[in-house]
Design a protein that fits this description.
single chain; about 170 residues; alpha+beta; Cell Cycle, Spindle Assembly Checkpoint Protein, Chain A; five-stranded antiparallel sheet; 4 helices
Length: about 170
């Protein structure tokens, strides 16, 4: 006699909120250590990420400080279909010299986002707490990225990497 079962996991808005909350914790820690972003912006970034994660529209999300076109420090989150929680939020680099540096965030949309019609993209963008412009990431050729945490909820994982300048 044998038995079989099926296990299905659905990614929901609650799962997206859980993952976005992990990122918001890191954003808040950045504010505590470096004064950016503001508490209001942290909440706006959290809302944006939650909404976009819910429907699978994010491929990568990155924030940190840049100076003269180069990353001073940064955290980068890559969205995957699997992963596990192996540590809590936190771990924003401390003691980095951000004198003269500016805060940045960068969001890379997923293939699913690009598959939407222009009208559908506009509908989603109208729900976001702010409008993003177009840009490019600062250079990261002068240091290294290290995977330091993984977060997962509802079968979707976020892999977090931290960048530290070698200079």
């Amino acid at each position: 006699m044998s038995s079989t079962y099926t296990y299905a996991q659905t990614f929901t808005r609650v799962d997206a909120a859980r993952l976005a909350g992990r990122t918001a914790t890191d954003l808040h820690q950045s504010w505590l250590f470096y004064g950016s972003p503001t508490a209001q912006r942290v909440e706006e970034y959290r809302q944006e990420l939650e909404l976009l994660l819910t429907d699978g529209y994010v491929s990568q999300y990155q924030f940190g400080f840049k100076k003269s076109g180069k990353v001073v420090w940064s955290l980068r989150y890559s969205v995957g279909a699997n992963g596990s929680l192996t540590g809590g939020a936190g771990g924003v680099p401390r003691g980095e010299d951000v004198t003269g540096a500016t805060w940045f965030t960068f969001l890379t949309y997923s293939a699913r986002w690009h598959d939407l019609t222009a009208t559908a993209r506009k509908t989603v963008q109208d729900e976001l707490p702010f409008k993003r412009g177009f840009g490019s990431l600062p250079s990261d050729t002068h240091g290294a990225w290290v995977v330091d945490r993984n977060y997962a909820s509802g079968g979707v994982g976020l892999e977090r990497e931290v960048f530290r300048s070698a200079a």
